[in-house]
Amino acid sequence: MAPHLHDPTQHEKLDPAVLRDDTTFAAGRIAFFQYVIVAVFLFILAGFWNLQVQENEIYTEAADRNRIKSTPMLAARGKILDREGRVIVDNHSSFSVILSRENLKEEHLPAIAAGLNLDVEDLAGRLRRWKSVPKYRAIVVKEELTPAEISFVESHNDPDTFPELELAHVQHRMYPKDNLLAHVIGYVGEVTENELDQPEFAKYNQGDVIGKAGIERQYNDVLMGTDGERQSVVDSKGNERELIGYKDAIPGRSLQLTIDLDLQIVAEMTLEGRKGAVVALDVRTGEVLAMVSRPAYDANKFAGRIRRKDWDEIVLNPDKPMFNRAIQSNFSPGSTFKPLVALAGLESGVIDDQTTFQCNGGIPFYGRYFRCHARSGHGRVNLQRAMAQSCDVFFYSAANLMGIDKIYEYGEQLGLGRETGIDLPFEGKGLLPSSQWKARTLRQKWMGGDTVNVGIGQGYVNVTPIQLAVMIGGIANGGMWSRPHLVTDPNKRELHKLQVNPANVGSVVYGMYSVVNLGGTGGVARLPGIEVCGKTGTAQLYGYDVRAKGATVAKDLRDNAWFVGFAPRTNPEIVVAALFENGEHGNLAGPMVRDVMKIYFDKKARNVSRVPTLALAPLGQKGFAVN
Amino acid sequence: MASYRTLRDIDWALLLLSLFLCGLGVLQIYSATQGTKWHNAWWKQVVWVLLGLLLMWLISSIDYHTLLGQVPLLYAGILILLLLTFVVGTKVFGARRWIALPGGVLLQVSEFAKIVIVLMVARFLTELKTDALHWRDLLKLIGLVGLPMSLVMKQPDLGTSLTYLPILATGIFLAGLRWQYALILGIVVAVLIPSSWFLLKDYQKSRIETFLDPSRDPKGEGYQVIQSKIAIGNGGMWGKGVTQGTQTRLQFLPVPHTDFIFSAFAEEHGFVGVVVVLGLYFLLLMQIVQNAQTSPDRAGMYICMGICSLLLFHLLVNVGMVVGRMPVTGIPLPFMSSGGSGMLSVFMMLGLVHNVRLRRFVN
């Protein structure tokens, strides 16, 4: 410390006595004060350390949220076309309203909901779901605005008095009328929170509209475009200061299906008012020409944000309209299974085309009496007559002779018991039983009676309509079949070959030819000038025993009618499988197959004259596309 | 008297530190107000700094003992001026704090009252020449400080009136307070603070409530604190660069050149800049303490310590506020915040410190 020397004469204004005091008395207190200064600085510095170093990221993001406003520019989804380039699914222009949440005031919600005809609760729920997304990202609150709603938005987008509502021009999904192709196409919807938690959806963002079912889901990556974004810097008043980013929306690519709209429309019409499915495949390539499942639903209701009422109506319907029966329903194939049993029998040598069995309306096996559908019996039948008349006794006997594992071997190679690999989500597997299967899943020994039942397509065996089409098509094509598909992908051409004797195939095909053309059970499927082959099926939901007791059977427990046919007899081109649920008898499903084949061959006959023009049409010119 | 004053005796460290801080303040004002209606605040600030230096020189050249001798006169004068603000004061934001001078300059009397209170406390305690206060003197001193304080509170300007308290508290602490008194005083304060809640105006209550929970009113009182914290946090370790602070430039930060200048600085210069500037303030305060320690007499020590505690309080409340650790009070940051009266008064106080220092080798 500096020396303290006092000169009273210089301080005449004060009492000199005071000035004799020096400051040493307070030295300790001053030191204490210095510690206080240090403490204050540490206290303040800790605040900065916390904000700038520890929580820097939180605040940087908050600053960006403050200043960056990002407006989405929604990409249009690709069109879906039929095999001839005709448009099945398109988009149409509409307005959506986007809400910038940064300036949103809670008390404005009722007014917004009222102006946009939304439910306040729905709107609030929507905002809650978006909580995790940065606030500067605006969200779509309603699509397909009516003119009244558009003018509401236009008159309420003053940032000073009302939270920012903005119009966005979007391309909205438009599905065909009358539920056409509903199950094949599927529908789109906003990705849900549950989905976002799953790894396969990780690439999507909150608010993305993605395919939820059918082709829309399977080929979402092709169809879905990449949304663009417009990022601008705004000041605290919401005024735009500069444009910092502009990313154009990239529209999705168009997708051409193998579906032929003409066949599809006919197939749809044959099922009108019925419950069931129709699948038509090109035997040679596996291309799906038509696929229908009824009842169906209106995909347009899903295209926007589906209303609760509509959703309940669809989901709670006992007929399950969302269910694609063509690939998902598992039913007994009934007699349509017989061509497989016949082929397996011939190939394994237990029968040949001259083998006969005596049908007296039934036959006992393993202490049980197995009935034929013809109570009076078919008499002595060979393969051709057994196929034509669908004699159960013949196939009971053949199956019994070869055993279940032979049937399994051939059925498995013709695609039964597993997914066919069609490019649609949620395909069913059906069930092709084997002795191993029973031991494994039911922990029971396979019984001879089980085989006998399977011989006529009953018992444990279950198929989906697409499997049936693949199997029959595969037999008709001499044991060759391709993975059925809706979009042709040269990299995914799966060709399956089953080594069979062509003579045996000829015998089975001849039997199926007889079904339609030689006084068989499927005469209704006959087409003049075309060698249609096929097989009826009546799949029991109840055994013959119950029916014999004369019980009245409720409508939804009546037998399912099947028909599966192909044409022409040699070098087959098309195979069609039809399921008519509760349709009682297979010959009711026959006309459905016939009508689809008729349009196929009619078109083919007409197209022959058009072929040169078609071939010359340059790529991209859809001269023949009829909308 | 002036004969032994040489340039060498000036507290150069103190002067340089204060000028450096003023310079940073001017730069920050310039950066924060570009493109706003305050865009010429920076050169006004330069003028205030120059005027402040002039006043500092004037104050330091009059022996502080002479000034102490005039305390009754100064005290009476400031009371009259404070009362006058109620009559002729200019109302801004609902408070009468300013007296308009010719030339459009507004003077904030309460700022200059600080200097008078510093002198008054120093003289009062020096004259007691005791190491332990008697409680009669204690009450007398509280009353003397309380009178101008209550006038300022009435303006209303709670923030500035509170800045008188550290002068009083530090004076009492240094003069020596018996622990019994400290205890009683503590109890009284503990009782008074909750009951004073009912005396606060609504906006003052809401400020304190908002301090406790800024999200309570994110667009109002809390908005300022939230935006200030965002600005500071956004600065990160190294800062966004001069004129690059988005919070500041896009006007999310309220009054970035006055009360919230430090958050604007923190956004643009980051934690590193904050450490540097707080370091400068720390050195400045320590320099003033050093002058108190080397003071030739108690009066000088009381003056220096009163000023030091006042500046510390300013720093704590202002910087604490921008960083969200103190409630919002309109207390400016010494040397940096834009504003004339504050700048003049702080340089006058530095003048007093220099004054004390220049006279430490008296014979």
Descriptive notes:
The complex is a heterodimer of chains A (627) and B (363). Chain A has 627 residues and is α+β, with helices and mostly antiparallel strands. In chain A, 36% of the residues lie in helices and 18% in strands. The radius of gyration of chain A is 37 Å and the shape is elongated. The termini of chain A are far apart. The model of chain A is unreliable at 1-20, 543-551 and 609-627 (pLDDT under 50). With 363 residues, chain B is mainly alpha-helical. Helix content of chain B is 69%, strand content 4%. Chain B has helices at 12-33, 41-61, 64-69, 71-88, 109-128, 135-154, 158-162, 164-175, 179-196, 202-212, 221-235, 246-249, 261-293, 298-322, 340-358; strands spanning 90-92, 95-101, 105-108. Chain B has a 3-stranded antiparallel beta sheet with strand order 1-2-3. The chains are: A alpha+beta (627), B mainly alpha (363). Chains A and B meet through helix 1 and helix 2 of A and helix 3, helix 5, helix 8, helix 11 and helix 13 of B.
Q: What does this entry show, briefly?
A:
Chain A is an alpha+beta fold and 627 residues long.
Q: What is the CA-based Rg of chain B, rounded?
A: 20 Å
Largest sheet of chain A: 5 strands, mixed
Q: Spans of chain A of 5+ residues with little confidence (pLDDT < 50)?
A: 1-20, 543-551, 609-627
- Gross geometry of chain A: elongated
Low-confidence stretches of chain B: none
Q: List how many beta strands of chain B DSSP finds.
A: 3
Using the alpha-carbon principal axes, give the shape of chain B: globular
Q: Return the structural class of chain A.
A: alpha+beta
Q: What's the end-to-end separation of chain A, in Å?
A: 102 Å
The chain pair forming the largest interface, with residue counts per chain, is: A-B, 54 and 66 residues
Number of helices of chain B: 15
* SS content category of chain B: mainly alpha
Helix content percent band of chain B: 55-70%
Number of distinct beta strands of chain A: 21
